[in-house]
Specification:
The protein has 453 residues and is of the alpha/beta class. The protein contains 15 helices and 19 strands. The protein folds into two domains: 198 residues, 3-Layer(aba) Sandwich (Carbamate kinase), CATH 3.40.1160.10; 148 residues, VC0802-like. A hairpin with a 2-residue loop joins strand 4 and strand 5. Helix 3 packs antiparallel against helix 4 and helix 14 crosses helix 15. It starts with a strand and ends in a 6-residue tail after the last helix. Bound molecules: aspartic acid. The site of aspartic acid has 13 residues, from loops.
């Protein structure tokens, strides 16, 4: 059995849904299908998930949400009309949305989750109904009945181990199963969503549970590219990647596959393939445990903005037992997770995602570091980007860091921070956000082909 996941752009309208169903039907092994909510039909369009978040916000604020509700229903109506599914299914969807809207609002997060998840849930019903209308045995699978259990631990939603025992039963299910991505249930029956883009994670969990021979992830590009095509002109396609390389690249900005989606597939040794719904015959990118060609030390260069650094200096920090723990405790108390922490003898820098800081928490953190740790110098720097150079080949090739830093120097990019060595397959450079394009182009030119910027 293969598990195939289709993303939002693959299911954005009726034409895309027809393509998806053709892809499903060309391979009888594609029996467990994970679907996202309808995504953007054009660059300026709005994803159904975002419409649903807006709907929840307006409803929670106490206003009439009829306008926002109509926007969601219109998206589904356009699809069901064009697929000629009849009005019945649209009534089911509208009724479902109204039930969710009328739910208890005392826990705003739960309320929002319930609305957010309805995009995937109703889209799964539509895809199943469309296949049925073609005379195919297809079933919508309810994640609650199937036993996809999620819990919240340390601020993150994680799959519970029991889920795998529950979901294995899907192996014996007949027909084509359409499973909504992005959400599951807590043991007390409350709907819980995964992080944004989380249908990739659902697919990986299911692939691991049913021991699929392959997890296919259908999106809107032919493959994963060696650099962001918006930053580098026609970057090389990557044919094969290891799980570790893909995890590092997705973490650092390759949005084609969710960075948390690899672990379940990796753990169960299920190969993953990224493919294009709009060009299904293209080979795509395979993600495997080990890859053959390691001649180029670097497989890809990723970049992500929105970081800041907190530099802390205190003489004899190296001798002060518990300094690091107390510093991180301050962040934990403020509910902030850190990304990286390079350190020196008397200095440490903590890299954080800016979105986690408000002006109040920022001031509070700086004050506490000064007062409680008696730090002598604290400098916060905003608008940083992290550039990640990734490749298993780095382990065997001497001089990769020298090549990377040389390329950045020639491009006059000032390196604010280097993190190299913690992971054997990547090195990371912190640069000013305004230097991102220059830095990526310089590194791509060094390890692939020179590009003009
Ligand atoms: N629809 C959700 C989102 O936009 C989840 C997904 O597509 O994977 O984040």
């Amino acid at each position: 059995m293969k598990v195939a996941k289709f993303g939002g752009t693959s299911l954005a309208n009726a034409e895309q849904i027809r393509k998806v169903c053709d892809i499903i039907l060309t391979d009888p092994k594609r029996r467990l299908i994970v679907v996202s909510a309808p995504g953007k039909r054009s660059a300026s369009d709005i994803k159904v998930t975002d419409l649903l978040i807006k709907l929840a916000e307006v409803s929670l604020a106490g206003g009439s949400a009829e306008h926002e509700l109509a926007a969601v229903i219109d998206r589904f109506k356009a699809i069901t009309d064009e697929l000629q599914l009849g009005g019945g299914i649209l009534q089911v969807i509208e009724q479902d949305l109204r039930v969710r809207l009328a739910m208890d609002k005392t826990e705003p997060e739960q309320y929002t989750d319930a609305l957010k998840a309805s995009g995937e849930d109703n889209n799964a019903k539509i895809v199943a109904a469309y296949l049925q209308s073609k005379g195919i045995e297809a079933h919508y699978i309810n994640p609650k009945e199937a036993g996809l259990l999620l819990n919240e631990s340390h601020g993150r939603t994680q799959v519970m181990p029991e889920s795998y025992q529950n979901l294995v039963a899907l192996r014996d299910h007949t027909g084509i199963m359409i499973f909504p991505g992005f959400f599951g249930y807590s043991p007390d029956g409350t709907l819980v969503t995964l992080p944004r883009g989380g249908s990739d994670i659902t697919g990986s969990i299911l692939a691991a549970a049913v021991k699929a021979e392959l997890y296919e992830n259908f999106t809107d590009v032919d493959s994963v590219f060696a650099a962001n095509p918006n930053l580098v002109d026609k970057p090389q396609a990557i044919q094969e990647l290891t799980y570790r390389e893909m995890r590092e690249l997705s973490y650092a900005g390759f949005s084609v596959f969710h960075d948390e989606a690899l672990f379940p597939a990796f753990h169960a040794a299920i190969p993953v393939c990224i493919k294009n719904t709009n060009n299904p015959s293209a080979a795509g990118t395979r993600i495997v445990a080990q890859r053959k060609s390691l001649s180029n030390p670097v497989v890809g260069i990723a970049s992500d903005g929105g970081f800041c650094s907190v530099y802390v200096h205190k003489y004899l920090m190296n001798r002060e037992i518990g300094f690091g723990r107390r510093l991180l405790q301050i962040l934990e108390d403020e509910g902030i997770s850190y990304e990286h922490m390079p350190s020196g003898i008397d200095d440490v820098t903590i890299i954080l995602r800016e979105e986690l800081l408000t002006p109040q928490t920022e001031a509070q953190i700086l004050k506490r570091i000064r007062d409680e740790l008696a730090a002598e110098d604290i400098i916060i720097e905003h608008d940083l980007a992290m550039i990640m150079v990734v490749g298993e080949g780095m382990r065997h090739n001497v001089g990769t860091t020298a090549r990377a830093t040389g390329a950045l120097a020639r491009a006059h990019v000032n390196i604010e921070m280097i993190n190299q060595g913690s992971s054997e397959v990547s090195m990371m450079f912190g640069v000013k956000a305004v230097d991102t394009v220059k830095a990526v182009a310089a590194l791509y030119g060094e390890f692939f082909v020179p590009v003009n910027v």
